[in-house]
TrEMBL record:
Domain of life: Bacteria
Keyword Transport: no
UniProt keyword list: DNA-binding, Transcription, Transcription regulation
InterPro entries xrefs: GntR_C, TF_FadR/GntR_C, Tscrpt_reg_HTH_GntR, WH-like_DNA-bd_sf, WH_DNA-bd_sf
HTH gntR-type domain residues: 21-88
Source species of the chain: Metapseudomonas resinovorans NBRC 106553
CDD domains: WHTH_GntR (cd07377)
Keyword field contains Secreted: no
Protein name in the entry: Putative GntR family transcriptional regulator
Annotated GO MF terms: DNA binding; DNA-binding transcription factor activity
One Pfam family recorded for the sequence: GntR
Lineage: Bacteria, Pseudomonadati, Pseudomonadota, Gammaproteobacteria, Pseudomonadales
Gene3D superfamilies in the cross-refs: GntR ligand-binding domain-like (1.20.120.530), Winged helix-like DNA-binding domain superfamily/Winged helix DNA-binding domain (1.10.10.10)
Length: 256
């Protein structure tokens, strides 16, 4: 577990995504982006003192921002021990992805019905920016834009509760990817996003949903959620040795 908070470097953003609002809104947005970009690893300790120094605000402001993030499931508030970036278990990861699939299906169906030409153009612009980020090697910004694409799509669905729920699921998904992604780290989400926009623009709900589910399959396939994998339980790891010791002996063992 990374117990040191790394500096939250600022990333260039478009004019429409410029941070504004109260001080805790700004702190919240910075930490949310750092999680979305996978710059804050699961399990990272979020020191109130360090964050207060970084953002130049009081601990009260920091606590309000962390409380909002905890409500979204991406930060864990531990009594008397401080806050940490959440580390979803394998079972939690599976539940989150199941919920994400249901929400993405609903959002896609509603976006086909409600998305305006202006919103579709904004989505296309986001895809271009996402592709440019990956092309120049800025993986963190590309991942953030990929997540923000899904948030913008939720807005196009014109259902406020889904937008709120999706915001939590997207950030939790980013944590899961950071924690469980295996194999190639290449991304082709911008190609899948473009095809999805085409289907929504043509008002083809069946094709749009199929493309979205394929997109979710692609993300899921990159994760190692095999519960039979590594463990931090020494007794479980060396259980075969313990079982061997318990077997009846066949005479006195020879010394090495």
């Amino acid at each position: 577990m990374n117990e040191q908070l790394q500096p939250l470097k600022k990333q260039p953003r478009t004019a429409k995504s410029t941070r504004s609002g109260t001080q805790d809104d700004v702190v919240y947005a910075h930490i949310f982006d750092a999680i979305l970009e996978q710059r804050l690893a699961p399990g990272t300790k979020l020191s109130e003192e360090a964050l207060g120094e970084i953002f130049g605000v009081s601990r009260t402001i920091i606590r309000r921002a962390l409380s909002r993030l905890a409500h979204e499931g991406v930060v864990l508030l531990r009594p008397n021990r401080g806050a940490v970036v959440a580390s979803p278990s394998v079972e939690e990861a599976r539940q989150i992805f199941y919920a994400r699939r249901l929400v993405e299906r609903a959002i896609t169906e509603l976006a086909v019905e409600h998305a305006t030409a202006e919103q579709l153009q904004e989505l296309r612009q986001m895809v271009l920016e996402e592709q440019a980020c990956f092309s120049r090697g800025d993986r963190g910004a590309g991942i953030r834009l990929s997540g923000e694409f899904h948030l913008k799509l939720a807005e196009a669905a014109k259902n406020a509760p889904l937008v709120s729920f999706q915001r939590s699921l997207v950030s939790q998904t980013s944590l899961i990817i950071a924690q469980y992604e295996s194999g190639s780290r290449s991304h082709c989400s911008f190609d899948e996003h473009n095809r999805l926009i085409d289907a929504i623009e043509s008002r083809d709900a069946e094709r749009a949903v199929m493309l979205m589910m394929h997109h979710m399959d692609h993300i899921d396939d990159k994760l190692n959620l095999d519960e039979g994998g590594a463990s931090d339980d020494l007794h479980a790891v060396f259980s075969h040795l313990l079982q061997t010791k318990k077997k009846p002996g066949r005479g006195t063992p020879r010394s090495a």
